Amino acid sequence: MTQAQAIENKTILITGATDGLGKKVALDLAFRKARVILHGRSPQKGRAAAEEIRDASGNPEISYYNADCSSLDEVRALAGYIRANENRLDVLINNAGIGPGPAGAVREKSRDGHELRFAVNYLAAFLLTHRLLPLLRDSAPSRIVNVASAGQQSIDFDDVMLENGYDGLRAYRQSKLAMILFTFDLARQLKDSEITVNCLHPATLMPTNMVLETDYFSGSMDPVDQGADAVEYLAASAELQNVTGAYFNGKVRAEPMAQAHNTQARQKLWELSCELTRPDDPA
Ligand SMILES: NC(=O)c1ccc[n+]([C@@H]2O[C@H](COP(=O)([O-])OP(=O)(O)OC[C@H]3O[C@@H](n4cnc5c(N)ncnc54)[C@H](OP(=O)(O)O)[C@@H]3O)[C@@H](O)[C@H]2O)c1
Fold first, then answer.
1. C-beta separation of 63 from 88 below 8 A
2. How large is the angle between the packed helices 124-138 and 168-189, nearest 10 degrees?
3. Is residue 168 within 6 Å of ligand 1 at its C-beta?
4. What is the rounded end-to-end Cα distance, in angstroms, of the chain?
5. 262 C-alpha to center of ligand 1: Å?
6. Which of 14, 21, 216 to mutate to test the pocket of ligand 1 (most atoms within 8 A of CB)?
7. Is 100 in the pocket of ligand 1 (CB under 6 A)?
8. Which of 13, 100, 109, 198 has the fewest CB neighbours in a 10 Å radius?
9. 169 in ligand 1 pocket by Cβ < 6 Å?
């Protein structure tokens, strides 16, 4: 089966699909006849993106859900709406994120009082994934794709919320390594299910808003198309149907920072994430 056939009629949710990489993935999947569920944080931008993708692809099966990932209540509600309205979910792509921001910027907090990049880039995906697991289980074989980054920094469990010596790049990199630790642990927990969980560095310095608005890097390198191609490979490639718990650099299997293989660190992060997001609380 080709990748295009593997995508046709599949229901695929992409978080952060109103711009950049997520929007390009959504457009490609729409052309390949998937049922595409876009997510974003701005209703106007989200509705416009859905309309643009519907018009460009001729695919009417494009929907949009709104939730600000800096609020765990909104993420919980998002999962509830999706479970109430969608019959199935074949692929969940956790892509929404914010970049390092301008150098020297001050530490920001989420609506729940957590360090903002840890909250938006990681905790939101942790909670959303848990709340959507029943739908993914019912739709199995299904896949979870976590968009991480090659930019990684070990998590300091004495200061996860970066209250001391805050730096935007450190915040971004810590949140991206957290996605990888989460991927490895969830894959282990789901090993007897037909749900695979993988993560990737999509491409390097694609010219998206998060890259263009930071002065930590200068210029861009890889086109957005390249990152989108890698995300779609993890989402639908037949070669990966039995691959789980892996980290990819683009479409190539790679090794993340050592902390991702540290089972104690993973357990600490898992426990902290459960404490902060309460994934099993009734809706
Ligand atoms: N660009 C790169 O070179 C690169 C490299 C490695 C990894 N990545 C990863 O790729 C993913 C996509 O990033 P991008 O480069 O495409 O950046 P982007 O163009 O800035 O897109 C980010 C997406 O996330 C959404 N988002 C941001 N904050 C949100 C919030 N609080 N709630 C809900 N949605 C929110 C944005 O919504 P708005 O449209 O409202 O802003 C947008 O749709 C990220 O996870 C990033 O870490 C990117």
1. no
2. 30
3. no
4. 39
5. 28
6. 21
7. no
8. 109
9. no
Pocket test of ligand 1: the residue of 98, 153, 249 to mutate, having most ligand atoms within 8 Å of its CB, is 98
What are 65's strand-pairing partners?
39
pLDDT in tens, 208-258: 999 999 989 887 789 999 999 999 999 999 999 999 999 999 999 999 999
Q: What percent of the chain has pLDDT over 70?
A: 98
What percent of the chain stands above pLDDT 90? 94
91, amino acid identity = V
How many CB atoms neighbour CB 215 within 10 A?
A: 11
Write the Ramachandran bin of 115: left for phi over 0, alpha for psi from -120 to 50, otherwise beta: beta
Ligand 1 pocket member 200 (CB < 6 A): no
CA–centroid distance, residue 270 to ligand 1 (Å): 23
How many contiguous H segments (helices) and E segments (strands) does the chain have? Answer: 10, 8
What pLDDT digit, counting tens, does each position of 12-41 carry? Answer: 999 999 999 999 999 999 999 999 999 999
- Kindly report, residue by residue over 140-167, the tens digit of the pLDDT: 999 999 999 999 999 999 999 999 999 9
Q: Is the dihedral of CA 115, 120, 125, 131 positive or negative?
A: positive
Report which secondary-structure segment, H or E, holds 199: strand 195-201
Q: Where are the beta strands (DSSP E) in 41-107?
A: 62-66, 91-94
What's the gap in Å between 1 CA and the centre of ligand 1? 31
Ligand 1 touching residue 19 (CB < 6 A): yes
CATH architecture label of 3-277: 3-Layer(aba) Sandwich (3.40)
Q: In the chain, where are the structural domains located?
A: 3-277
Q: Do the strands 142-147 and 91-94 form a parallel or antiparallel pair, or are they unpaired? A: parallel
The one catalytic residue among 64, 65, 122, 172: 172
Whether 81 is catalytic is: no
